[in-house]
């Protein structure tokens, strides 16, 4: 919900850093791989109940996730780069929540499973929309130049970062936050399905 607003504020400084990174010989895919490694380290810190370290590492992962796109835009956008970027995002979101389940399985496991299940809904509705948007040549640049169509929703990247930060700051309330955020994710999934019905329904119904 807040991603478009956030992009307008973080893209200019990221673009400047990306330009400098390209001049230094850095490649976008290398930034992506580093970001994934940092994200996995964040989940490992959470599993060890080092919550503040996990939060800071996750923030670093998100910065790198934005930086790889900036580097790509100043060098060359590639389909594979977009592919590993989005796969990395989904894997890190899930593994980060899994870290809380490992930290306190009796308290957190069911809520973590529900939230990861909810991510399946948001992720699949996002990617399925992008596939058919590409088929119909529907484009948007509201979130900057992307490798695929980005359909918004109630729970986007900004809201996920905020929820994860709350989980790290208040780990005893992880389950409550996970149940609430998971429910919001399902609202996102439903609204995306409604958007798909409006965008992709032809004269005949299946």
Question: Which short descriptors sum up this protein?
Answer:
206 residues, mainly alpha, 7 helices
Give a description of the structure.
By secondary structure, the protein is mainly α. Helix content is about 80%, strand content about 0%. The protein is built from 7 helices and no strands. The protein is flat and about 45 Å long. The two termini are about 30 Å apart.
Question: Quick summary of this structure?
Answer:
The chain is mainly α and 206 residues long.
Strand-helix topology:
Blueprint: H1 3-23, H2 28-47, H3 51-74, H4 79-103, H5 105-135, H6 157-169, H7 174-200
Low-pLDDT regions: none
N-end to C-end Cα span? 31 Å
**Annotation, overall tally of beta strands:** 0
CA gyration radius, whole angstroms: 18 Å
**Helix-strand makeup class:** mainly alpha
Number of helices, where a helix is a run of at least 4 consecutive DSSP H or I residues: 7
Q: Helix content range of the residues, please? A: over 70%
Beta-strand content: under 5%
Estimate the mean pLDDT confidence. Answer: 86
Largest sheet: none
Shape: flat
Order of helices and strands: HHHHHHH
């Amino acid at each position: 919900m807040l991603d478009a607003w956030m992009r307008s504020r973080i893209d200019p400084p990221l673009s400047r850093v990306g330009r400098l990174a390209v001049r230094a010989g850095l490649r976008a895919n290398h930034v992506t791989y580093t970001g994934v490694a940092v994200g996995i380290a964040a989940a490992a810190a959470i599993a060890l109940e080092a919550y503040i370290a996990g939060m800071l590492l996750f923030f670093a992962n998100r910065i790198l996730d934005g930086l790889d796109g900036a580097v790509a835009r100043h060098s060359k956008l590639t389909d594979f780069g977009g592919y590993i970027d989005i796969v990395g995002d989904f894997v890190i979101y899930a593994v980060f929540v899994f870290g809380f389940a490992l930290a306190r399985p009796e308290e957190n496991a069911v809520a973590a499973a529900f939230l990861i299940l909810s991510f399946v809904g948001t992720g699949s509705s996002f990617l399925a929309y992008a596939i058919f948007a590409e088929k119909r040549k529907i484009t948007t640049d509201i979130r900057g130049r992307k490798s695929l169509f980005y359909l918004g929703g109630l729970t986007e990247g900004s809201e996920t970062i905020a929820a994860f930060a709350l989980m790290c700051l208040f780990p005893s309330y992880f389950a409550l936050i996970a149940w609430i955020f998971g429910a919001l994710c399902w609202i996102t999934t439903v609204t995306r399905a409604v958007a798909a019905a409006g965008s992709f329904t032809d004269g005949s119904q299946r």
